Amino acid sequence: MTDPVAGPEPYRVTFVCLGNICRSPTAHVVLDEKLAAAGLADRVTVTSSGTGGWHTGEPMDPRAASTLSSAGYDPTRHVARTFSIDDYAENDLILVMDHSNEADVLELAPTVEEQQKVRMFRAFDPEAGPDDLEVPDPWFGGDEGFTHVLAMVERTCDALVEHLRHPG
């Protein structure tokens, strides 16, 4: 991985889930805040998208937004978008939330080399095991699912910030 702090251009990270209204925008908002706190906001840019386009143009799921707001984050700027082949050229690291997202994103890769940009988000989670790399989709559950996802995202983003600060 290129060192985002030393490079001439900002390092570009994008998160991908299914509809871009719950998991990936939660990770986007949290990572933006953690990068700012670490003094890396000008060295790393963050976006998010979904593999399915049915929510394109919509705001974040109200339950995800409420969970983020309650934790002190600002979810109001999010507008859902769909992952496309262009995201390969526009990003250095593509972090997917589950294996289905991973398969969909890899299928769009223009080259085998570009596939190397794709990683499971929870590969950075210090509590994840090799068979536990998915961020569960809270959309069909209750509020506790959003709280669980936020805790998982916060811990993983902490580790991701450290990785971006000290790659290798």
Structure, explained:
The chain has 168 residues and is α/β, with parallel strands linked by helices. It has a single domain (11-165), classed as Response regulator (Rossmann fold, 3-Layer(aba) Sandwich), CATH 3.40.50.2300. It contains six helices and four strands. It has a four-stranded parallel β-sheet with strand order 2-1-3-4, with helices on both faces. Strand 1, helix 1 and strand 2 form a beta-alpha-beta unit. The longest helix has 23 residues, at 143-165. It starts with 10 loop residues before the first strand and ends with a helix.
Layout of secondary structure:
Blueprint: E1 11-17, H1 23-37, E2 44-50, H2 62-70, H3 86-90, E3 93-96, H4 99-107, H5 112-115, E4 118-120, H6 143-165
Parallel strand pairs: 1-2, 1-3, 3-4
Helix pairs in contact: 1-6, 2-6
